[in-house]
């Protein structure tokens, strides 16, 4: 499965942004999916998880109440809506299954300026 993330950009603190991840294979629909992020000099961390059917989600404490993960299995795409962005949300955002199954995509850069 190939993963292609998109939608990142440069925003100001307090703004909103949505990123997307498209998968190349229909096995996407049977797997729990997640968004991860990696800030400069830091390890990649899990941000949000969504069940295969989309009915269950979980979030890292740092983004709870601000980020929303969703998916469209027909489009083989998962989304991450980010609100009230903070400078500490600056990172490259990636998607993958949870647990990780596939090679990483290139990610999409999200930069939040203060």
Describe the structure.
This protein has strands at 3-6, 9-12, 17-23, 33-38, 45-50, 57-59, 67-72, 77-82, 91-97, 108-113. The protein is 0% helix and 48% strand. Strand 7 and strand 8 (77-82) form a beta hairpin. The chain has 114 residues and is mostly beta strands. Strands 2-10-9-4-5-6 form a six-stranded mixed sheet, with no helix packed on it. The chain is globular.
Gyration radius, in Å: 13 Å
The overall pLDDT, averaged over residues, is 97
Taking the alpha carbons of the first and last residues, their distance comes to 37 Å
Characterize the overall form.
globular
> Helicity range of the residues?
under 10%
- Which band does the percent of strand residues land in? over 45%
Give the key terms.
six-stranded mixed beta sheet; 114 residues; globular; mainly beta
Briefly summarize what is shown.
The protein is mainly β. It contains no helices and 10 strands.
Secondary-structure topology with pairs:
Elements (H helix, E strand, L loop, with lengths): L2 E4 L2 E4 L4 E7 L9 E6 L6 E6 L6 E3 L7 E6 L4 E6 L8 E7 L10 E6 L1
Parallel strand pairs: 2-10
Antiparallel strand pairs: 1-3, 3-8, 4-5, 4-9, 5-6, 7-8, 9-10
